[in-house]
Amino acid sequence: MRKKGINYAKYGYYFSIPFVLAYLIFSLYPTIYTVIIGFTDLRGLGRTTFTFLDDPFENFKLILANDTFKKSVVNTAVIWIMNFIPQILLALLLTAWFTNRRFKVKGQGIFKVLIYMPNIITAATIAILFNSLFGYPKGPVNDLLMTLGILDAPANFHMQEWTSKGVVAFIQFWMWYGNSMIVLIAGVLGISPTLFEAAEVDGATPTQIFFKITLPRLKTILLYVLITSMVGGLQMYDIPKLYLWGGPDNATLTANVFIHNQAFSGSYLYNRAAAASMLMFLIIVVLSIAMFYLMRDRGEQKLRRQERARVRALKREASV
Predict the structure, then answer these.
(1) Is 40 helix (H, G, I), strand (E, B) or coil?
(2) I want to staple 273 with a disulfide (CB 3.0 to 4.6 A). Which of 215, 226, 249, 263 is the partner?
(3) What secondary structure letter does DSSP report for 150?
(4) Could you tell me the domains of the chain?
């Protein structure tokens, strides 16, 4: 008698049930609920009942006309640009250093751990640390600058707009350049070693190898780093909120901090917070599509168009 085989495929579905339930309850449902209340009059602490507005886009119009929201979006973009440019440059430099075939770095593992470590430190810890470092009137940074003779009196960095932006941008840079480096190193390790060996045999310098071989083949990885960094940057919340609560004078107020303030302070405007969330979602989608379009492989697309044209020509010839 033939034994019936055991079907193990069903166990995969069983193990996925907790994840699916968690996703439905804690992600999908809140997302759908947020979209719905963006078109309603829901506001006020503890209120759960709402009605749909006669003008469904009223909340969106009010948010778009809100100067604080506009400033928060600009702040978010400025802080992200200030941290991303040095972040990607340093990550590329470290990637070139750690993956150089001629220059063998001793203790690479230790260096990589130390560089990546800021990424695993909690945002609250880092915010408190930098708040203390730039403390006024007594703080390590003030003490150092006064000792070096750069400052005659303590400076209140927390009350200076661009200094505050710079500190937040530096924290973001310091926390994430290690993560970008690890991703880029993984991309370099995925490139065929024969390409580097052939270049070395031909007498190419490390600089030529990096710019002519490594960098072009990292285009997809760079796009990934750019998109994920942009999405994360536009969702920036913890450091600006915990460092100076969006101050001074809304200088470090980001879009997510603005949304939080709308929903959980003052009049508890859940509807407007939801509308602002959807607007930020649309901004992220549009920018992501633009990035994909600008960084597309034009050579590959040209080859595809030529191939499609050739196939169409063959079909026409066959039909004649």
Answers:
(1) strand
(2) 263
(3) S
(4) 67-301 (1.10.3720.10)
